[in-house]
Write a sequence for this structure.
């Protein structure tokens, strides 16, 4: 089956095949090989009547695989399947908080992030206060599972010394 939705569990491509005429009065030649090939044409798994391949982390993203069955006289049949695998969290290309020294004005925290596979779902900006010694959520955004880069800004109006942490979540909860 073609995987139509994203998964964070490594997909398993599991196939079986038989020679179309085997078991009939015509007695087909029988199956010689069954192979699973990646998009570059490399054989990832093979067998005679069945083959199975569990995707490695290198195959995160959307990939098309080709399954080729060959009988004992050289006839072939092929099918393609698509997998969508994402077990990696979103990337944050920048997170900047300014000013970094005492200032009479407001501070600004900005970030740019994205998730290239299943899409960026949300971001939560957390702040640690040296005065209270606690973390709190100060801003949150939702992004509708976009695969594009997004940028947002938060204006800090409170006085104090703060650390900021950005928690990004993709469509699968990574």
């Amino acid at each position: 089956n073609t995987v139509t939705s994203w998964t964070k569990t490594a997909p398993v491509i599991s196939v079986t095949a038989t020679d179309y005429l085997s078991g009939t009065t015509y007695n087909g030649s029988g199956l010689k090989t069954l192979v699973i090939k990646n998009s570059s044409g490399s054989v990832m798994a093979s067998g005679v009547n069945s083959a199975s391949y569990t995707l490695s982390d290198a195959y995160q993203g959307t990939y098309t695989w080709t399954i080729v069955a060959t009988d004992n006289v050289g006839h072939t049949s092929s099918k393609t399947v698509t997998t969508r695998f994402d077990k990696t969290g979103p990337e944050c290309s920048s997170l900047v908080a300014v000013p970094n020294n005492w200032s009479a004005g407001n501070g600004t925290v900005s970030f740019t992030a994205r998730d290239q596979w299943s899409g960026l779902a949300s971001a939560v900006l957390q702040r640690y206060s040296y005065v209270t010694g606690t973390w709190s959520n100060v801003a949150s955004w939702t992004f509708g599972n976009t695969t594009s880069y997004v940028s947002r800004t938060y204006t800090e109006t409170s006085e104090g010394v703060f650390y900021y942490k950005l928690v990004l979540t993709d469509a699968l909860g990574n």
Observations:
- The chain has a mean pLDDT of 93.
- The chain is about 0% helix and 55% strand.
- Residues 48 and 109 are 59 Å apart (CA to CA).
